[in-house]
Amino acid sequence: MDTNGRSTSPGRRVLLRGAALGAAAPLIPAAASADSPVRASRPGRRGAVATYRWLGTSGWRVDVGEENGKAKRTVLVDPYVTRFPTGLFSGDFDAATPLRTDEALVRRHAGKPEVVLVTHSHWDHFNDVPYLARSTGARVVGTETTYHLLRALGVDGGQISVVKGGEVLDFGGYVVEVAASLHSRNAKYSYFAPGTLHAPPVAAPKTVSDLPEGDTLSFKVTPTGGPSALFMGAGNFDERAFRGLAPDIAMVAVASSKATYQYVPRLLEALGRPGVVVPVHWDDFERPLSEGPHADSGTDLDAFAAEVRRVSPRSRVVVPDYRTVYGADLRPCR
Ligand SMILES: [Zn+2]
């Protein structure tokens, strides 16, 4: 959840949907430390390729595969597609809203994931993960809190990898680097349901308030030979933990308030001014995906894009759409 504290009038229609903004900069590897093993991969090299589908909020489906049509390998990030209403965007948020999963919808969007990356445990990131983990056997990578919540919801502990930040995980064909991160803050410098779990919850979670944040992570995914993409789940970050990640593509959560000092400039500078910047977590996640994205009322995408252009003129801003499949360079696939 990234929107606590925003005004709650209905969101305006997104006009920028699917548009690519900003200077038409080529996808270039950002300046990086030469000693990082991840930075050995180079855009444009033949080999594994990836496609990206935005699942809304901070959710992504990444399919990594060979160009000769070999079977794709699917990695999910924060897959939340059920999108049940809580009143968050209509002004009467109910923290006791029951959790539920639309299993058919999840199956339709998720493919057959082998890895699910979870940035934090709020329901708009975590809700569909227990079903996905139980039904597919996918490995879940997340915090200790995510681990305890999943265990309480019937997921085998052997398929959960607890991480803190700093891990560089080699899945053969792609590498996942974990970075410690931070949750966004509302105008009162706080956020919904903070807290961590260091033991299983007393009872299995039943409502949105039963899912604490549990600290927040970001993930950099680098398919072999392909550009790297950083996935953020909330609109804040640890500047020192991000410095040197140098992703080619950055899925940047749009901040929901001005509580964080110089969010966009500090973020883009720490990341080495990525070639492609993709704003995420700006959409109303209580409308069905089939409607296409609607900006929630707290977000000004034009201002975000303008700030990116000012700070990092060579970055290409791609405002994503749920219904578009993007190639490794984040241009729409034909
Ligand atoms: Zn959250």
Overview of the molecule:
16% of the residues lie in helices and 22% in strands. The protein is globular, with a radius of gyration of 18 Å. It has a single domain (49-321), classed as 4-Layer Sandwich (Metallo-beta-lactamase, Chain A). Helix 6 packs across helix 7 (301-311). Strands 1-14-13-12-11-10-9-8 form an eight-stranded mixed β-sheet. The protein contains seven helices and 15 strands. It is α/β, with parallel strands linked by helices and 334 residues long. It has helices spanning 103-110, 123-126, 129-136, 144-152, 239-242, 263-270, 301-311, and strands at 20-21, 48-56, 59-66, 73-77, 113-117, 139-142, 160-162, 168-170, 174-181, 216-223, 229-231, 249-253, 276-280, 316-318, 325-326. The structure holds zinc ion (ZN). Zinc ion binds next to loops.
* CATH homologous superfamily caption: Ribonuclease Z/Hydroxyacylglutathione hydrolase-like
* CATH architectural group: 4-Layer Sandwich
**CA gyration radius, whole angstroms:** 18 Å
Present as ligands are: zinc ion
Task: State the domain count.
Answer: 1
Strand-pairing-aware structural class: alpha/beta
- CATH top level class name: Alpha Beta
Structural shape: globular
Helix content: 10-25%
- Main beta-sheet strand count, sense and barrel state: 8 strands, mixed
